[in-house]
Amino acid sequence: MSDLATAVGMSPSNLYRFFENKDALAEAMAGEWFAELLVIMEELVSADMPVEEKLYQFFAKRVVIKRARYEDDPELFESYMELGNEHFDVIKGYVDLADHYMASILAEAMEKGYFKGLELDAVVSLVNTMMQPFCNPQLMMQMMHLATEERLRIVVNTIFKGLHADNGRAIKKPELHVAG
Length: 180
Hints:
Blueprint: H1 2-7, H2 12-18, H3 22-46, H4 51-72, H5 74-86, H6 88-111, H7 120-135, H8 137-143, H9 149-162
Helix pairs in contact: 3-4, 3-6, 4-5, 4-6, 4-9, 6-7, 7-8
């Protein structure tokens, strides 16, 4: 907390007036970081639009926000990433919620005949893998020039046109392993 206080030009005691420890600070920062993103996801899940556009907007609107945050203040953006890495248990709840919203959109797509032969969990896992440059802020910092809305549109179209079981063999969702 002392390093953080120094970085923001406060005394440690002043910082402790607002946050009792680094965990409390991480929770507050995560809440701030995800607030706008959660509103977008909630609105899109219930939006009356074609499911293809819904999935595109689910990622595109968040890409625009994350890119703007990075471009406005790269150091602050990187500070958020560091704090998120140190307190991934706080961030994981938000990531899981985003996956839940995405799963709702993908389930809607499955009802319309997309992703034949696949289970919802497998589709969520595969889409998450393909969308990393557009949703993982750490990766976005490295691939900002490639994670464009135009490329996102191509990836989403490819998902809807080509994601299905091969030769009738279902793909199972792999076990999740968190690097640490």
